[in-house]
Amino acid sequence: MESISISESAVTVRKVTREEGTAFSKAMDDAGLPPDQADLVDIFIHGDPLYGAFVNGKMVGGMTFGKCQPSLKDCTTIHAMIVDPESRGTGVGKELLKFAEKNAKTTWLMTNPHTDEAESFYLKNGYEKDEEFDENDTNVVLKKLK
């Protein structure tokens, strides 16, 4: 896969409609991603809004995030994030993270322990493993403090 370079200013992140999210999830499914990675719409339907990353009008990434539990102030939890395989390594994921983190002092997320690429991406972007919450092999819990 040839990597393309995208200027961070070329990435626009905004809330998307259910229809846009459905089309993106279908495209990711068609790209061969496992359903648990491709279907952001399922999470979107259950509450938190879906945000998309667009380059030249095409949605190339998506994420859902929301506030942590009420007792934690200035905290965001990223529920799911996916970037089109052809756009990985171009700054799209980084822009999605910055969008989710902009009003939070702490950002939490969980990732599958069997997806080294995702864990490596988050660690490179300032996240740390939180061993206190990593009680089993089903998820790797990561957090980022400002």
CATH homologous superfamily - what is it? Answer: Gcn5-related N-acetyltransferase (GNAT)
Tell me about the biggest sheet? 7 strands, mixed
* Mean pLDDT reading: 79
Helical amount among residues, as a percent range?
25-40%
Strand elements, count: 7
How many whole angstroms does the radius of gyration measure? 15 Å
Coarse structural class: alpha+beta
Q: Give the ordered list of helices and strands.
A: EHHHEEEHEHEE
Shape: globular
- Count of discrete domains: 1
Distance between the termini: 34 Å
* Annotated CATH architecture: 3-Layer(aba) Sandwich
Which stretches of 5+ consecutive residues score pLDDT under 50?
1-5
At the fold tier of CATH, the topology name is Aminopeptidase
- What fraction strand? 25-35%
What is the highest CATH level, the class?
Alpha Beta
Count of helical stretches: 5
Give me the secondary-structure topology:
Layout: E1 11-15, H1 18-30, H2 35-38, H3 40-45, E2 50-55, E3 58-67, E4 75-83, H4 92-101, E5 106-111, H5 116-124, E6 128-129, E7 140-145
Parallel strand pairs: 4-5
Antiparallel strand pairs: 1-2, 2-3, 3-4, 5-7, 6-7
Description:
- The protein has 146 residues and is α+β, with helices and mostly antiparallel strands.
- The chain has a single domain (9-145), classed as 3-Layer(aba) Sandwich (Aminopeptidase).
- 29% of the residues lie in helices and 30% in strands.
- It has five helices and seven strands.
- The chain has helices spanning 18-30, 35-38, 40-45, 92-101, 116-124, and strands at 11-15, 50-55, 58-67, 75-83, 106-111, 128-129, 140-145.
- A seven-stranded mixed β-sheet has the order 1-2-3-4-5-7-6, sandwiched between helices.
- It is globular.
- The termini are far apart.
- The model is unreliable at 1-5 (pLDDT under 50).
